[in-house]
Design a protein that fits this description.
The chain has 178 residues and is mainly alpha-helical. Helices cover 60% and strands 7% of the residues.
């Protein structure tokens, strides 16, 4: 039978189940830890992963208007989470860079989520299930890398952007951990 008749391929069902499960897991952990995504947290994450950029670049990466991102950056600047300085490539623009306080805020949020996940693993999973989870992580990493390369047109130059790195320093691009 075809999809038009209501049948979906095994891969389509698996893809939907994976999307649903990962989304629910991320949502529950974020809600449980009080680290729900916001425009500010996403802008900080971008600056940490990709390094300094101007407001226009941030707006483009987030898919929002320049005006919206300008307001987000102003809030981050007021809170001391970013620094703004002259953009050497465009003197009319300001370069936004994550501050040490911004790095610390990201690190704190990530640590809270990691601790919550660690507790869930310890209290809910058997040793065999932990082994299965380790294998699943490797598979998910491989899928993410393949999708990233597809989106980038075959480029592997920025694969390091996929992996979380320790949040430290002043916000240069992060490097892949293995």
């Amino acid at each position: 039978m075809s999809e038009a008749n209501g049948d979906r391929s095994d891969e389509a069902r698996l893809a939907n189940d994976l999307r649903r499960s990962v989304s629910a897991f991320v949502r529950v952990i974020r809600q449980d830890t009080g680290t729900v995504r916001s425009a500010q947290s996403e802008a900080l994450d971008l600056l940490h992963r990709l390094g300094p950029m101007n407001v226009a670049g941030l707006a483009e990466k987030r898919g929002v208007t320049h005006q919206t991102m300008r307001l987000v950056v102003a809030g981050l600047d007021t809170d001391g989470l970013v620094h703004q300085g002259a953009d050497p490539s465009d003197r009319r623009s300001r370069l936004v860079k994550i501050s040490p306080a911004g790095c610390a805020a990201l690190a704190q949020e990530r640590q809270v989520r990691t601790s919550r996940i660690e507790h869930a693993i310890q209290s809910q999973l058997s040793p065999g299930e932990r082994d299965m989870l380790r294998a699943a992580i490797s598979i998910l990493d491989r899928l993410a890398e393949a999708q990233f390369i597809k989106v980038r047109g075959g480029s592997t130059d920025d694969l390091s952007l996929l992996q979380a790195a320790p949040v430290s320093g002043t916000g240069g691009p992060r490097h892949k951990r293995r």
